[in-house]
Write a structure and sequence with these properties.
The chain is mainly α and 435 residues long. Helix content is 68%, strand content 3%. It has one domain.
């Protein structure tokens, strides 16, 4: 049996073994386990029950990671995406006033669109149509967005009626503890400690308990708690509020997140083909789409590939076994559901800030000396946090790219899909302005 598995996962060709793959899977889990705490803390703001979202987070991450490992055979783990969960909560539910059940319906529909477009090869065409510089800008913009949310949760950035925002009170116990937590997480990162974010979250939580800043109320958790969100999605409602408006954003943001992760992980692992293409790309995209559908059914926002998978690759992971091990550990993590409610904002805020900072690494991939590239990239990354909307930044980036290249006489037939996307975004903005 083991020999058959080794052949299927190509252990010999990849130069790996069971011990290396298992350790790599554990490493990946430790570097992304913070999502078990952070994702529910964000989605809870929509009114979704915290224990149910925690269980859904673990289950969807387990399903997506195991599926990726089995059918695509890549060391890529999946979980509810950071940035996408923020859009789900702060833009769709809180700002647009859409019930979380309807938002889940939109996530489900986006997953079905993923499946259809992947089956017809359209999703792959879209991936090739978007300039690489904008991929980098979107990642940076989402990083700034996540960090801004974390700074707000920590009380380090607060509202001001004149200047819009200002520095908060660093003497406030929550703010001070969040800053200490951030310092601890960064120190652990510098020391190359695996699971630095999770360790930081647990340490700050313990400190908050000792300072009397949080109180524990035991809640139902585990698989049983899923009944509060599982199959509660409202698909007809999502169609009524606007298929294009919500599903469009879920679809394209997931595309950007996914592509960046695929390139980063496969390049680091040496799994790209000689022409820099990614073998079995269709299988990867199918796994990602099915994970999103499953996540919406259990009760969480869009599930996507995680760039933290590079940690497992750095530990030697090369096959799908790495992702499967990570998925199994997420199943084990479900037992923690009854205790997640004790985690205060002071513990999750520094995690958001640190994750946001990590996502800024792609800023060096943008060609800042070329105005045709720099302006669209800048508009993308700056408007995402300042307008509190990934869709706005993404839309302005694509539109400005198309307009500037058209004005410069650099329009080519091969860019037809990019200009179609720009037109769709422009229609979206005109629609929102009229409504």
């Amino acid at each position: 049996m083991l020999i058959r598995l080794e052949r299927y996962f190509e252990f010999s060709r990849l130069g790996t073994n069971w011990r290396t793959e298992v350790l790599a899977g554990v490493t990946t889990f430790l570097t992304m386990a913070y999502i078990v705490v952070v994702n529910p803390s964000i989605l809870e703001k929509t009114g979704m029950p915290l224990p149910a979202v925690t269980a859904a987070t673990c289950l969807s991450a387990a399903f997506g990671s195991i599926l990726m490992g089995i059918i695509a055979r890549y060391p890529i783990a999946l979980a509810p995406g950071m940035g996408l969960n923020a859009y789900f909560t702060y833009t769709v539910c809180l700002r647009m006033g859409i019930p979380w059940q309807t938002a889940l319906g939109a996530v489900f529909l986006s997953g079905m669109v993923f499946l259809l477009l992947t089956a017809f090869g359209i999703r792959q065409l879209i991936l090739k149509a978007i300039p690489q510089d904008l991929y980098a800008a979107v990642a940076c913009g989402i990083g700034l967005f996540i960090a801004f949310i974390g700074l707000s949760k920590a009380g380090l950035v607060v509202q001001n009626p004149v200047t819009l925002v200002q520095l908060g009170n660093i003497k406030d116990p929550t703010t001070a503890l969040a800053l200490l937590g951030l310092g601890l997480m960064v120190a652990l990162e510098i020391w190359k400690v695996k699971g630095s974010i999770l360790i930081g979250v647990l340490t700050v939580t313990a400190a908050a308990w000792g300072m009397g800043l949080t109180h524990f109320t035991r809640a139902e958790g585990g698989v049983a708690s899923l009944t509060a969100t599982a199959f509660k999605l409202d698909i007809p409602g999502a169609l009524r509020v606007g298929l294009v408006e919500i599903v469009f954003v879920f679809f394209f943001v997931d595309l950007f997140d996914n592509l960046g992760t695929l390139v980063a992980v496969t390049k680091r692992a040496g799994l790209q083909a000689a022409d820099h293409s990614i073998p079995r790309l269709n299988r990867i995209l199918f796994a990602d789409a099915l994970a999103t559908v499953a996540g919406s059914l259990t009760g969480t926002s869009t599930v996507t590939s995680y760039v933290e998978s590079t940690a497992g690759v750095a530990a030697g992971g090369r096959s799908g076994i790495t992702a499967i091990v990570t998925g199994l550990l997420f199943l084990v993590a479900m037992v923690a559901a009854p205790f997640i409610g004790i985690v205060p904002a002071a513990a999750t805020a520094p995690a958001l800030i640190l994750v946001g900072s990590m996502m800024m690494t792609t800023v060096t991939e943008i060609r800042w000396t070329d105005p045709l590239v720099a302006v669209p990239a800048f508009l993308t990354l700056i408007l995402i946090p300042l307008t509190y909307s990934i869709a706005n930044g993404l839309g302005f980036g694509i539109i400005s790219w198309a307009v500037l290249h058209l004005a410069a006489g650099k329009l080519t037939r091969k860019d037809w899909l990019l200009y179609l996307l720009a037109a769709l975004f422009l229609i979206r903005f005109l629609y929102l302005s009229a409504s």
